[in-house]
Design brief:
signal, Transglycosylase_SLT_dom_1, mainly alpha, 72% helix, Transglycosylase SLT domain-containing protein, Lysozyme-like_dom_sf
Length: 383
C-alpha cells in the first residue's frame, strides 16, 4: 500500500512540474513561480489528506479486529452460559424431591399447609380452650348408663365434670401428682388403660376428659347414680367405698365430696346450656391456656428436630452439587436455588417464632389475670 502511495505522489509531482511549463518562447522555457507555488501547496495538502486517510483506515482495521475479538468472546460466554437442559432439570428435580429422602422433599418440608403434627394444637381454630375440651368430653360420655342413673342433664353432667376437673387439676392438662396421676382428671396409668385412653392421655387433654368422665360414669353406675359415693370412689377407689359402706374416713376424700358439689352448684348456675362458654374463672382459664399453649409450642419445637435434619440433608445435597459442577450457568442456577432454600428456611423459622409467641402471649395473659385477681382481693370496702 505504501509503494502505491509513493508512486502516486511521484506522478503528482511530475504533473505539477509539467503544468508549470506552459510554453517555450524562442527555445527558452518560461517558469511561472506563482503557479508552481500553488501547485506545491496543493501537493502538500494532498499528502496530508493521504496521511489522514491512512490513519482512518488503520483505525477502522483495528476496530474490525476488536469487534472480531469481542464477538469471539461473546461466543465463548454464550457457549459457557448454555444450560445443559437435561442435566440441570434432573438436578433441580432431584433436589426438590429431597435428594433421596422423601421427608426432605420440598413438598413435605415447605408445604404451605403446616404439616407439623402439633400445629393443630398451636395455631388456628383447631387449638381448643380447656372449656371447649370439657364440652366435647361431656357430649361424648353423656350416653353412659351411669349418667342416666344419676338423672343428670347434659348441662348438669358438664357442671359435675367441670367441678371435678377444677378440684383435680385446676384445669392444667399437664400437671402430675407424686402418686403418678396425670392431667385434667388426674388419671392413674392403670385407670387410663382400663378406660381405653392409655395411648395418648398424657399429651391429649381431650383423652384426659374422656377417660375421667368414663370412669366417673362407671362409678355412678356402680353406686346406683349416687353422686357423692361415685365421687368418693373416684378419689379413694370403689373398694374403699364398699369397705366402709359409704364415704371412707379419709380427710382428703371427705373434703373431696364436699368441695366438688359446692363447685358444681356454682358452675351449674353459670352454665345456661352444655355449650356455654366463659363459665371458668378468668384466672383459671388463663392458667389452663398457658399450660396448653406451652405444651403445643414444646411439641411443635420438638417435631422441628426432624425437619432440621431434613433441611441439613437438603443443604448438603446442594453444596455437593456446587462442588461437582463445572458449568458457570449451572453454578448460577445452583446459587439461585440455594438462596431460595434460605428463604424457605426463614419461613419455617417464622413458624417456630410464632409458636413461641403464642406461649409468651398466654403467659402475659395469665399474669395479667392473676394481678387483676390480686387487686380485686386487696380492694377493701367499709360496706
Amino acid at each position: 500500500m505504501m509503494h502505491r502511495a509513493t508512486f502516486a505522489k511521484a506522478l503528482a509531482v511530475v504533473g505539477l512540474c509539467a503544468s508549470t511549463v506552459p510554453a517555450a518562447a524562442q527555445g527558452v522555457p518560461i517558469i511561472d513561480g506563482n503557479l508552481l507555488k500553488q501547485n506545491l501547496a496543493i501537493l502538500a495538502e494532498q499528502e496530508r489528506d493521504l496521511t489522514r486517510q491512512q490513519r482512518k483506515l488503520s483505525r477502522a482495521e483495528a476496530q474490525l479486529q476488536l469487534d472480531a475479538e469481542i464477538i469471539a468472546e461473546l461466543d465463548k460466554l454464550i457457549e459457557a452460559g448454555s444450560l445443559p437442559v437435561g442435566p440441570t432439570g434432573d438436578m433441580i428435580q432431584t433436589l426438590e424431591a429431597g435428594a433421596g429422602q422423601s421427608a426432605a422433599s420440598a413438598q413435605t418440608l415447605y408445604n404451605p399447609t403446616d404439616t407439623n403434627a402439633a400445629a393443630s394444637k398451636t395455631f388456628g381454630d383447631a387449638a381448643l380452650t380447656v372449656e371447649e375440651v370439657i364440652i366435647a368430653g361431656t357430649k361424648a360420655t353423656y350416653s353412659h348408663a351411669g349418667v342416666s342413673k344419676a338423672g343428670l342433664s347434659q348441662a348438669q353432667w358438664r357442671a359435675l365434670l367441670q367441678a371435678m376437673i377444677w378440684q383435680e387439676s385446676r384445669f392444667n392438662p399437664f400437671v402430675g401428682s407424686h402418686a403418678g396421676a396425670w392431667g385434667l382428671t388426674q388419671l392413674m396409668p392403670g385407670t387410663a388403660k382400663e378406660v381405653g385412653v392409655a395411648g395418648d392421655y398424657r399429651t391429649n387433654p381431650y383423652s384426659q376428659v374422656l377417660g375421667g368422665a368414663t370412669y366417673l360414669a362407671r362409678m355412678l353406675s356402680m353406686f346406683d347414680g349416687n353422686i357423692v359415693l361415685a365421687l368418693a370412689a373416684y378419689n379413694a377407689g370403689p373398694g374403699n367405698v364398699q369397705k366402709y359402706g359409704g364415704v371412707p374416713p379419709f380427710a382428703e376424700t371427705r373434703h373431696y365430696v364436699q368441695v366438688i358439689p359446692a363447685k358444681y352448684n356454682e358452675y351449674l348456675a353459670a352454665i345456661g346450656g352444655v355449650d356455654a362458654l366463659g363459665t371458668i374463672a378468668p384466672v383459671d382459664a388463663a392458667g389452663a391456656n398457658l399450660a396448653m399453649m406451652g405444651d403445643g409450642a414444646s411439641a411443635y419445637g420438638g417435631n422441628m428436630v426432624q425437619e432440621i435434619a431434613a433441611i441439613a440433608h437438603r443443604l448438603k445435597a446442594i453444596i455437593s452439587q456446587m462442588e461437582q459442577n463445572q458449568n458457570p450457568s449451572q453454578a448460577w442456577a445452583l446459587n439461585t436455588y440455594a438462596r431460595a432454600e434460605m428463604g424457605r428456611i426463614m419461613a419455617l423459622r417464622v413458624r417456630v417464632l410464632a409458636a413461641q409467641n403464642k406461649t409468651v402471649s398466654a403467659e402475659a395473659l395469665q399474669q395479667a389475670t392473676a394481678h387483676a385477681e390480686e387487686r380485686k382481693f386487696m380492694k377493701f370496702s367499709n360496706d
